[in-house]
Amino acid sequence: MASNVNPTVRRRRLGQELRRLRELKGMTAEEVAERLLVSQSKISRLENGRRSISQRDVRDLCGVYEVEDVRIVDSLMQMAKDSRQQGWWHSFGDIPYSVYIGLETDAASLRVYDPLVVPGLLQTRPYAESLIQGALPEAAAGDIDKRVQVRLRRQERISDLENPLRLWAVLDEAALRRTVGNKQVMIEQLEHLVEMSHVPHVTVQVIPFAMGAHPGVSGQYAILEFPDAADSSVVYIEGVTSDLYLEKANDVQKYSVMYEHLRAQALNADQSREFIADVAKDYAH
């Protein structure tokens, strides 16, 4: 379940507020960096929430921005303190996509498109194990198990009765046809997918091969939206060595429009269930 204090989201909110104060002051990130004798990249990382922010950083920046309201300074200092707490995922050690997990943990809704595999939040344990083993052939068994445990823990957001994640997943037919593990693993996975599609706050749609070219041929992405209006939506694109987070309104809008086209071209929810069930029968033959 989502924690009351999510350090990832706290860093984002704090970074957004610090950027707002800088812009109100009419200063560039380079000018601030020169005043504090730090690199411009540090200021950028503090503002985009990718770097932990210390209370000393907040104090120094408030000094540069001449923030005189003690209540504002105290509030920002508390946010900095909260941002340094650890989320549940830190107990699993070094997780390469921990920033994303923090965002997903606090998100109100998630729209995901995946052309190759079943999305992590809808994976069964055997499917997840086989998928991670295949994707990371040189990884140790312990590391694979850790990743599987994290993936299963993430799925608790869907079953959280008080704060369920609104999930909309659009899959390409290739994600259903790619045999991950073996036929039995795929049968169980596809049956689980059908079962999850009946959950009120989960929608699953499939784009068949017959649909031809569509706006999602460029690859996988996800759009996260948050319950607090102060938290801007984020487009997440997973990479091999680094991930991409797009937060500018124009970028989010473009991906949102593209997602609407995907939803429109995909089979509807009922048709998708039938399609997934038929593919499961193909594996059984």
UniProtKB/TrEMBL annotation:
**Where in this chain does the entry annotate a coiled-coil region?**
none
| Entries under Pfam families matching the protein | DUF5753 (PF19054), HTH_31 (PF13560)
Q: Molecular function terms in GO for this entry? A: DNA binding
* CDD domains linked to this entry: HTH_XRE
The record's listing under SUPFAM superfamilies reads: lambda repressor-like DNA-binding domains
- HTH cro/C1-type domain location is 18-73
Name-wise, this protein is: Transcriptional regulator
Q: Which InterPro entries match?
A: Cro/C1-type_HTH (IPR001387), DUF5753 (IPR043917), Lambda_DNA-bd_dom_sf (IPR010982)
